[in-house]
Amino acid sequence: MMCRSLLALGLFSLLMAGPAAGQTVPDSSRVSYSEEAAPDPQPPQSVLEQQYRRLIRVQVEEQQMWKLGLNNFTTTIGTDSTGESLYYLRAGPHLTYERKLRPAWSVMAELSPDFIRFRDRGTGRLRNSFVVRSQLAGRYYYNLARRIRKGKSASNFSANYLSLALGSSVGRQAQETPFFAYEYGGPAVRLDAALLYGLQRRLGRYGFVDFTFGFPFHVISGTGAASASAPNTVIVLLRIGLALGR
Questions:
Q1: DSSP string for residues in 172-227
Q2: Closest by CA position to 203, among listed 98, 49, 51, 57
Q3: For residue 158, is pLDDT > 80?
Q4: Rounded to whole angstroms, what are the CA distances from 189 to 57, 114, 174, 220?
Q5: What percent of the chain lies above the pLDDT cut of 70?
Q6: Nearby residues of 228 by Cβ (< 8 Å), 6 or more positions away
Q7: 201 with 182: CB under 8 angstroms?
Q8: pLDDT higher than threshold 90 for residue 21
Q9: What's the CA gap between 109 and 220, in Å, rounded?
Q10: DSSP characters for 49-61?
Q11: I need a surface site. Which of 91, 152, 160, 235 has the fewest CB within 10 A?
Q12: How many Å apart are CA 14 and CA 34, to the nearest integer?
């Protein structure tokens, strides 16, 4: 009798366990996705560096530039080698246009209308006159690639250059070209040339500085007018003023 009871209990247990064994156990695992950002190859710039790069216009590509030089003035007061009194004053702007032909090559034209006041050697009186000086030059900016590698401004005429330039003066009372100073009197037109080395930089959005030195030589200096600046000497030119791109 007991065996039958145990057998019945076993069968009942199997019947109850069957449905439970057929049930699917819920999956409690979770799948999540995430993205790992690659490091920026160029670290973010500081505020100071951003302001500096904006100041020198490092990301501005300019093909042409108008320049207004504001330091076109000089004064000579004294006596010459013969003891004669000298007085010479010049004032006016430099009007310049420069245009790129290729990334490293450009042409530049400069016009300098000058008001002069000088002492007439014949009468000894002070006289006024208006003369014009001009310059035409080709420039090769040789260090553009190096400046680009260093992250410096190189696209807005800011680089070092080599140049071949022609300079002239027009006016009966003209005593200067861009490269030479002459004694009073002589032809109404003079023409000089120069081999130059220089550097040009932008000063903010509307400023520039152009520093040049080199070796000038006469092309047409005229007869009867001795040169006050001997050839084969080093000349130094400086232009400071306002600049406008395209």
A1: TT--B-SS-BB-S---SEEEEEEEEEEEEEEETTTEEEEEEEEEEEEEE--SS--B
A2: 57
A3: yes
A4: 40, 15, 8, 8
A5: 64
A6: 180, 181, 182, 183
A7: no
A8: no
A9: 19
A10: HHHHHHHTTTT--
A11: 91
A12: 47
Angstrom distance (rounded) from CA 124 to CA 155: 52
The torsion angle over the Cα atoms of residues 177, 182, 186 and 191, rounded to 10 degrees, is: -30
Place of tokens 């030089």: 69
Place of tokens 């090769």: 140
The owner of tokens 């680009």 is 148
Quick check: helix, strand or coil at residue 20? helix
> Residue 84 and residue 122: Cα distance in Å, rounded?
11
Pairing of strands 159-170, 126-141: antiparallel
Q: Are 133 and 178 in contact (CB under 8 A)?
A: yes
Whole-angstrom distance, CA of residue 78 vs CA of residue 82 = 11
Residue 18 has pLDDT above 60, yes or no: no
Single-letter amino acid code for the residue at 121: R
Cβ atoms 93, 69 nearer than 8 A: yes
What average pLDDT does range 170-185 have in this prediction?
A: 85
With vertex at residue 238, the alpha carbon angle to CA 159 and CA 145, rounded to the nearest 5 degrees, is: 5
The pTM for the full model equals 0.69
